[in-house]
Design brief:
Length: about 325
């Protein structure tokens, strides 16, 4: 993998990854964090939905509210990961802005934090995105703590509300630290150092949700990045209809049964495959019409584990086709 191709293709410092549920957005986020860590860099991978979807991909225990190393690259690169919990984030917030250390922990024990985030749902998203902002802008000895932060964000159906923290916070307060924090997060999310990528499959519902999400984010003034088409498959059939004679010759050459029933079943499978490929071609054209850079990732056999993530990372780091 050529390291010098990673930054031009993924120049943002905060990479937000969303997509319809089931499209593999968590897998893509993990692979992107690996790709961006190439060349001895350090990246942070953040999840905010409480699903613990990242830990199994890297073969590590469930992630705490603490930045932990989940992968090291041979060239010195490192991926750290963090599961942001709204309650822990609120405790940290109370400690930082109101000096409520022990008192804040006591509030947690009596359930006041759950109560606060229930009656003010926007507060939860402010806390979650606020922690992401802190990690993205953190400096250590005058240098950025992380080359890039990758956020495994909520799905497309909720991404606009999640990222539009200014509007959500306006319902809570117009002054004070919460307002200041949300304004800072909003400025980061709308700045050139942030890009929101949408993961999709070549299926009708994910493609439609991709178009809807891009339109919503653009309307909110949030910068969108790439459309990542996940689990793509090569066309394995030649052009034109497969005849029975061709199938019989192929089966015979492979020393397989070439009876009429087998040939008919294979012809039916081939036609189903062609119909599916025609639909995928049409859906790909719809995605191209959105005028966003398209990145395709292959469908990999078996479970997604760390070696599989490295394979996907290599695809993400490859230069854009010319």
């Amino acid at each position: 993998m050529r390291v010098d191709t990673v930054e031009p293709r993924w120049p943002a410092r905060l990479q937000v990854v969303t997509g319809k549920g089931g499209t593999g957005k968590t897998t893509v986020a993990a692979a992107l964090a690996l790709a961006l860590a190439a060349g001895g860099r350090r990246t942070l991978l953040v999840e905010v939905e409480g699903r613990q979807g990242l830990a199994p991909l890297f073969g590590v225990p469930p992630l705490p509210y603490e930045e932990r190393t989940v992968a090291r690259l041979p060239d010195g690169g490192e991926v750290r990961a963090l599961a942001v919990d709204a309650e822990e984030a609120l405790l940290e917030y109370l400690s930082m802005f109101y000096k409520l250390g022990a008192a804040g922990r006591a509030l947690g024990k009596i359930g006041a934090i759950d109560f606060a985030t229930t009656i003010a749902p926007g507060l939860r998203d402010v806390l979650l995105t606020g922690k992401v902002k802190e990690a993205t802008t953190r400096a250590v000895d005058g240098h950025r703590a992380y080359h890039a932060v990758v956020l495994d964000a909520p799905p497309t159906g909720r991404i606009g509300r999640f990222l539009n923290v200014t509007a959500e916070t306006a319902r809570l307060t117009r002054v004070g630290p919460i307002k200041s924090q949300s304004d800072g997060v909003a400025a980061l999310l709308r700045s050139p150092i942030t890009a929101v990528h949408v993961v999709t499959l070549l299926e009708e519902m994910p493609v439609q949700e991709t178009a809807d999400a891009l339109a919503e984010l653009t309307g909110l003034g949030i910068r969108t990045g790439k459309v990542i088409v996940n689990r793509t498959r090569p066309d394995i059939l030649p052009d034109g209809r497969l005849t029975g004679a061709e199938l019989r010759r192929g089966l015979a050459a492979a020393d397989l049964p070439a009876d009429r029933a087998t040939v008919a079943a294979l012809q039916a499978e081939a036609e189903t495959h062609r119909a599916r490929r025609a639909l995928e071609t049409a859906l790909h054209a719809e995605l191209a019409a959105l005028h966003r850079p398209l990145v395709s990732l292959p469908q990999l056999p078996g479970e997604i584990d760390l070696p599989a993530l490295h394979t996907l990372a290599a695809h993400l780091a490859a230069p854009d086709p010319t």
